């Protein structure tokens, strides 16, 4: 009985017409393992949908190098190339249903949403990475605050202020001069002592605050 049904399916004018059409690789691969019959047409449609989504996802890197508007255009164009090819093949055979158009349109929109979501996630990740790199670069190339050890010093008019703890480290001094003075004192100290000095602000004779460098090990003390 199954053999009779199979023979009838093969002799169907629709199937015969489809067999004469030029087929895409996915259809050829499907036919090589599964004879075309009304019982497996739905499986063929599923394979086509999966292939559409797979080929679109493979475009990710290419799409990411484009702008957001180009992303939408490229996804739509790529999808149209795929779907038109399959549509022409199945429509010429009479096997393509009207509902398949809506299915393809939904796949296109879902895939576009996936790519845009991925694009936004990648963009956010890159922005965050750049911000971290800029922050690290600023810390490496800036003068670290000797009081809080987490902020960096910045020139504010004639004062040198920490952008983290807001402490006024020095007045009437340029940041470059302060850094040179700090480096010199630390180099001199390291030449005679391996301990790390501490820093504190103390009043000076000019009714302002000065940064005091102290070492409890070698009893060395000086101001900047």
From TrEMBL:
Gene Ontology annotations for the cellular component aspect, listed alphabetically: nucleus
GO biological processes: protein import into nucleus
Gene Ontology molecular function terms on file: zinc ion binding
Keywords recorded for this protein, A-Z: Metal-binding, Zinc, Zinc-finger
Domain RPA-interacting protein C-terminal, first and last residues per copy: 144-221
Top-level taxon in the UniProt lineage: Eukaryota
UniProt cross-references to PANTHER family, sorted A to Z: RPA-INTERACTING PROTEIN, RPA-INTERACTING PROTEIN RPAIN
Protein name per the record: RPA-interacting protein C-terminal domain-containing protein
Species this protein is from: Cacopsylla melanoneura
């Amino acid at each position: 009985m199954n053999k009779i049904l199979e023979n009838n399916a093969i002799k169907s004018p629709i199937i015969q017409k489809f067999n004469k059409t030029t087929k895409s690789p996915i259809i050829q691969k499907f036919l090589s393992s599964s004879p075309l019959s009304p019982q497996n047409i739905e499986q063929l449609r599923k394979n086509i949908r999966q292939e559409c989504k797979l080929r679109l996802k493979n475009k990710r890197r290419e799409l990411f190098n484009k702008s957001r508007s180009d992303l939408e255009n490229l996804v739509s164009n790529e999808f149209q190339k795929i779907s038109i090819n399959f549509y022409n093949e199945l429509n010429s055979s009479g096997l393509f249903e009207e509902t398949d158009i809506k299915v393809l349109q939904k796949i296109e929109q879902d895939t576009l949403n996936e790519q845009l979501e991925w694009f936004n996630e990648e963009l956010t990740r890159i922005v965050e990475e750049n911000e971290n790199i800029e922050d690290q670069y600023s810390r490496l190339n800036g003068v670290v605050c000797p009081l809080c050890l987490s902020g960096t010093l910045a020139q504010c008019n004639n004062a040198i202020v920490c952008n983290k703890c807001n402490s006024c480290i020095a007045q009437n001094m340029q940041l470059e001069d302060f850094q040179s003075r700090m480096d010199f004192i630390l180099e001199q100290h390291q030449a005679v002592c391996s301990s790390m000095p501490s820093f504190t602000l103390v009043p000076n004779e000019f009714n302002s605050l000065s940064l005091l460098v102290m070492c409890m090990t070698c009893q060395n003390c000086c101001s900047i």
